[in-house]
Amino acid sequence: MGKTAVEKLAKLGARIMLLGRSKEKTMAVVKEINEMAQHTDGDAVHYVPCDLACQKSIRTAASIILEKCSRIDLLINCAGMNSGIRKVTEDGLEMSWAVNHLAPFLLSNLLLDRLKESSSSMASSARIVNLSSASEKYGHIHFEDIQLEKSGWSTIKSYSQAKLAMNMCTRKMAKELLSSGSTHNVFVNALNPGFINSNLLRDLSGWEMIVGVPSCYFSAPRQRWEPTGFCEWPYPTNIPMSLGNLCTKMPFAIPTRKLWMMNLLRKFGRYQSRKLD
Ligand SMILES: NC(=O)c1ccc[n+]([C@@H]2O[C@H](COP(=O)([O-])OP(=O)(O)OC[C@H]3O[C@@H](n4cnc5c(N)ncnc54)[C@H](OP(=O)(O)O)[C@@H]3O)[C@@H](O)[C@H]2O)c1
Questions:
Q1: Helical H runs in the chain?
Q2: How many whole angstroms from 101 Cα to the centroid of ligand 1?
Q3: Are the C-beta atoms of 56 and 83 separated by less than 8 Å?
Q4: Which of 6, 76, 93, 172 could, after both became Cys, cross-link 98 (CB 3.0–4.6 A)?
Q5: How many other C-beta atoms lie within 10 A of the C-beta of residue 267?
Q6: What are phi and psi of 20, to 5 degrees?
Q7: Which residues have C-beta atoms less than 6 Å from ligand 1?
């Protein structure tokens, strides 16, 4: 999905910093899109090395971006993963929690000041788009066992916890941005793309592989990005500009469990400040 978004943005004339952990793989995409977006003199997409499972790597990537980009109009936190077994990052974090939640949270915060500086008027609003998932609906935040060491780990449990946390942070950040919004126009939204035929389920094993079987019947990334409006550039055309929205591209709407979410948000806020202390 990331590649499709970059392709679309490059065609619209954007200059893009594409993060990737594999130089070879990401450079192939950079080359392909730069050749396609000829009007940009092959300068549309730039590769920034980043392993989202490593917080040092995220910090380095953010500093490269800040050095190269005097303004940032749009940050799409698209990368995500699923794993068939419990993995731990070199920072000692459960992999799904680290990549699907902490990484976009950290990157957004490291780039937030530049997004704010780049959006001093309504005519130049900036956006963060966090790729969410319908699985957040089944997620629980295991406050006393975030790393799922004691309560049992599973692919869906870790993924849905991380995506739920991402949605809560989206809302929390949106609320904070709204209350500090007199000098900037940064909008943050979560986007659930629906079912996409991608590589997301490639690392599943055992019975969970069965879940991946129907994915060949899912939509192609291009079909899903087109109508979202999130990738319009420089400004989105058709998304509600309310803050912290969970916009869904599912064929049916997912009811947002507002009260439940609000309680959870309060609890999550307390958890975060406890951890920060
Ligand atoms: N596909 C769906 O049906 C679906 C549904 C709901 C939500 N989503 C969300 O949509 C987003 C895009 O997923 P997708 O379907 O496009 O999946 P995908 O084809 O598997 O792409 C995921 C991308 O994330 C990158 N990535 C994974 N771990 C990384 C790491 N540690 N550091 C840097 N990059 C890393 C992968 O890079 P490599 O190529 O190096 O592995 C890959 O480019 C994800 O956030 C996913 O949770 C997808």
A1: 2-11, 23-36, 55-68, 95-96, 103-117, 155-179, 208-212, 221-225, 258-276
A2: 12
A3: no
A4: 93
A5: 13
A6: -160, 150
A7: 1-2, 20-22, 25, 50-53, 78-81, 99, 131, 133, 192-193, 195-196, 198-200, 218
What pTM was estimated for this model as a whole?
Answer: 0.86
* CATH homologous superfamily, domain 50-276: NAD(P)-binding Rossmann-like Domain (3.40.50.720)
pLDDT at residue 263, rounded to an integer = 54
Does residue 11 have a pLDDT over 70?
yes
Distance 257 CA to ligand 1 centre (A): 26
Using CA positions, which residue lies closest to atom 1 of ligand 1?
A: 196
Per the document, the length of the chain is 277
**How far, in Å, is the centroid of ligand 1 from the Cα of 254?**
22
pLDDT 10s digits, 194-230? 777 778 777 777 666 666 666 666 666 766 555 455 5
User: For residue range 84-93, what is the model confidence (pLDDT) as tens digits?
Assistant: 899 999 999 9
Pull the structure tokens for residue 32.
Answer: 């392909």
The continuous run of DSSP H or E covering 45 comes out as: strand 45-49
SS3 category, 3: helix
The catalytic residue positions are 159
pLDDT at 272 over 60: no
**pLDDT tens across 92-113, in order?**
999 999 999 999 999 999 999 9
How many other C-beta atoms lie within 10 A of the C-beta of residue 203? 16
Buried b (16+ CB within 10 A) or exposed e, 156-169: ebbbbbbbbbbbbb
User: What residue spans define the domains of the chain?
Assistant: 50-276
Beta strand pairing call for 45-49 and 16-20:
parallel
